[in-house]
Amino acid sequence: MVYINLFIEFFKIGIFSYGGGLAMLPLLQDTAISRGWITASQFADLIAISESTPGPIAINMATFIGFNSGGVFGSIIASLAVVLPAFILALILAKFLQHFNKHPMVQSVLIGVKAAVIGLVCTAVLQVALVSLYQSGYGQLLTFYKDLDYKAIILFIIMLLGVIKYRKNPIIYISIAGIIGAIIW
């Protein structure tokens, strides 16, 4: 039953996540946490791990969540299920777009889809930031400053400035932040 649930849920994530791995984060988060496959804290850690390992973030996350729930076979099922809809859709769209790519209606639809993807990515960033920057997970709206983890905010700002100024490989920043995090916390 675990394998069927993994396939169905990750197939749905693959169907409803247009725009790539980052667009999948809100659905991955909601599904994995609500089903008890991982915790919110594990999800935040998983993003860092998935970003620092080779391959697309969504496949890396599906592999880990699948393994966590169903072992090696679960990781294979989750990984295949999350990419299968994109594969099928790519075959269909390639045929369709050959004929209608320049049509104004198709262009309008693509603009709307891009806006939705931006909203999904922003939501995922906000949710991960709340888990990462608050000592107790999600802070209260009116007393948000009381639970803030100021060390995490300072580390975030330093890494952000480093990325903006030096534009080095993200693995460098992730490694530095991991070392600093191990020392501070």
From TrEMBL:
Belongs to the chromate ion transporter (CHR) (TC 2.A.51) family. GO terms for cellular component: plasma membrane. It is a multi-pass membrane protein. The lineage of its organism: Bacteria, Bacillati, Bacillota, Clostridia, Lachnospirales. It comes from Natranaerovirga hydrolytica. Its main location: membrane. It is found in: Cell membrane. Keywords: Cell membrane, Membrane, Transmembrane, Transmembrane helix. The chain crosses the membrane at residues 6-25, 73-97, 109-130, 150-166. GO terms for molecular function: chromate transmembrane transporter activity. It comes from the Bacteria. The keyword Membrane applies. The keyword Transcription does not apply. This is Chromate transporter.
